[in-house]
Amino acid sequence: MNTIPNVPYRLEFSVEVPGTPEQVWQAIATAKGMSAWFLPTEMEEREGGSLHFSMGPEMGSDGHVTGWDPPRRIAYEEDWAALMGKDPDALSPLTSEFLVEARSGGTCVVRVTSSGFGTGADWESEFWEDMGANWMPFFDNLRLYLAHFPGQEAAQLEATASHPGDAQGLWSALNEALGLGEEGAAVEIRGATGRVERVGERQALVRLTAPVPGMLTVFAYGESAGTATAGVRAYLFSADAADYVRREEPAWENWLEGLVGATLDDTAGNPVQPASTT
Fold first, then answer.
1. Phi and psi dihedrals of 180, rounded to 5?
2. Which of 40, 72, 81, 203 is positioned for an S-S bond with 88, CB 3.0–4.6 A?
3. What is the per-residue pLDDT for 73?
4. Which residues 6+ apart lie within 8 Å of 259 measured at CB?
5. pLDDT tier at 82 (50, 70, 90 boundaries)?
6. Which domains does the chain have, with CATH numbers?
7. Rounded to whole angstroms, what are the CA distances from 10 to 84, 118, 204, 224?
8. Predicted pLDDT at 56
9. Enclosing H/E stretch for 250
């Protein structure tokens, strides 16, 4: 078995976003900015500064800033061996680089490259495939943040619940119960109103307008054989956002727990909708 980290992995993305290079830099190179469209982030905003992405209770990714050239380039490394519970000597750091290029018409192109070296183990390929799929929806968040909430600080709401069944069935039930509809549709989701901005594979993005403006992502994914997870993550922008999160996060968790048995019935083909909660 190869134990020398000489098998290369690489992901490249490019996204055009509204805003000046300075506005884009605030979004991609500050803790406040990253937390407003990505994961809750702690960052020492300088070369050599520490970095931490929170991925849930007692789970996160640690790293440090390796490149700092405002407002054009930031690079950082993460310890993906520690994140995956693997031998750190078996893997190189995971390196990510963001490049900002101004365009005419008030937009910028953000080019993102993530790379690293492993040993060629099966779990490594799965990790990089999952990371690529998980990255893409966040770039829609970034575009929406810069279009409607540039420079603003977010209060994050997150709730998940796991259920027996498969991810696609759970997503169908979740989509149906929330009445998400197609891209561009006006929606009301558990007392909040908004517009569907994107519908992807087992996930959707909604721009919320009331009672608190922000962005809401709804998703479902397969956790392990026979188990799937449904979840929501919201980024909310107003003076009332923190109070709204304290009130609504437990309600969302209860609602998602109520999706038990809501996966598609193999015989009827219809999702069972949970009772609405407040």
1. -65, -40
2. 81
3. 98
4. 161, 163, 170, 173, 174, 177, 230, 274
5. confident
6. 7-148 (3.30.530.20), 155-257 (3.30.530.20)
7. 18, 11, 26, 25
8. 77
9. helix 241-257
Place of tokens 């509809």: 181
Cis peptide bond prior to 40, omega within 30° of 0: no
Task: Kindly provide the residue ranges of all beta strands, DSSP E only, lying in 190-241, ordered along the sequence.
Answer: 192-200, 203-210, 214-224, 227-236
Nearest Cα residue to 144 out of 206, 82, 73 = 206
How far are the Cα atoms of 42, 167, 191, 257 from residue 271, in angstroms, in the given order? 40, 13, 21, 15
Please state the length of the chain.
Answer: 278
For residues 135-153, average pLDDT: 96
Residue 155: count other Cβ atoms within 10 Å of its Cβ. Answer: 21
Question: What's the average model confidence in pLDDT over 128-157?
Answer: 95
Query: What predicted TM-score, i.e. pTM, was given to this entire model?
Result: 0.89
The two structure tokens encoding residue 156 = 């994050």
Q: How many other C-beta atoms can be found within 10 angstroms of the C-beta atom of residue 269?
A: 8
Tokens representing residue 247 in the block:
């009130």
pLDDT given for residue 2 in this prediction: 57
144 and 150 Cβ atoms separated by less than 8 Å: no
| Phi, psi torsion values for 182, nearest 5 degrees | -95, 170
- Cα 114 from Cα 15, distance rounded (Å): 14
247 Cβ neighbours under 8 A, 6+ residues apart: none
Q: For residue 276, count CB atoms less than 10 angstroms from its CB and return exposed for 0-12, middle for 13-18, buried for 19 or more.
A: exposed
* Residue 83, C-beta contacts closer than 8 angstroms, at least 6 positions apart: 61
CA distance 192 to 212: 8
Q: Are the beta carbons of 19 and 28 closer than 8 angstroms? A: no
